[in-house]
Design goal:
single chain, 170 residues, alpha+beta, five-stranded antiparallel β-sheet, three-stranded antiparallel β-sheet, 5 helices
């Protein structure tokens, strides 16, 4: 199901046939370094991950992480969307792109469109974001999206992350 379109991109729900792309994305060194190792190593594990994580979020929360693809040739570039975490009151935005598609404005284009969607369609008044302390490019993107750095937080695995927030009208 298509969520929205931008000038260059289609943002849609992830489906089982995206498993090969997800397997590739989740095993990129940058994904593992900045987001974490999801221990998905086979197509079957990727299909299961798609169903139990991404698609389950669509059903449970009405939103989730979505596939970002080029409008002209349907090339899968990355994922972008919202995550509802047990330890946060509000949804948080997340994004990850294959390295060959970074620094082309796709993350900003998709994230800014999804922030508008979150505010106008999902009714979000506040959105959070987290990054590792050394992920400067994601931090800069969040600031460009009008997120403000709030504080360092400790998550259950004892990792210290940067917490950012966006509030309607700010």
């Amino acid at each position: 199901m298509k969520i929205l379109e931008t000038q260059r991109l289609i943002i849609r729900e992830l489906i089982e046939s995206d498993a090969e792309f997800i397997l590739d994305l989740l095993n990129q060194p940058s994904f593992i370094k900045y987001i974490g190792d999801r221990n998905v190593r086979t197509i079957e594990e990727a299909k299961n991950f798609l169903e139990t994580r991404y698609r389950k979020s669509y059903q449970d929360n009405g939103y989730g992480l979505y596939l970002v693809e080029l409008k002209d040739d349907k090339t899968s570039l990355g994922i972008c969307g919202f995550v509802k975490r047990d330890n946060f009151q509000y949804a948080d935005i997340g994004f990850a792109f294959l390295p060959q598609f970074e620094k082309n404005g796709y993350a900003f284009e998709s994230a800014s469109a999804l922030m508008k969607y979150g505010e106008e369609t999902l009714g979000f008044k506040e959105v959070l974001a987290i990054t590792t302390q050394d992920n400067e490019s994601s931090g800069k993107l969040l600031e460009k999206l009008n997120f403000k750095f709030d504080e360092l937080i400790e998550i259950p695995n004892n990792e210290i992350l940067k917490l950012f927030s966006w509030r309607e009208g700010c």
